[in-house]
Amino acid sequence: MDTLQSLAAILGLGFTSGVNLYLGALVTGLAIRFHLVAGLPQGLDILAHPAVLAVSSLLFLLEFFADKIPVVASIWDFVHTLIRPIGGALLTLGAAGHMSPGLQTLAALAGGTLALGAHTAKMGFRIAAHVAPEPATFTAISTAEDVGATGLLLLAYTHPVPALIILAALILAIAF
Question: Taking the complete model, does pTM exceed 0.90, yes or no?
Answer without folding.
Answer: yes
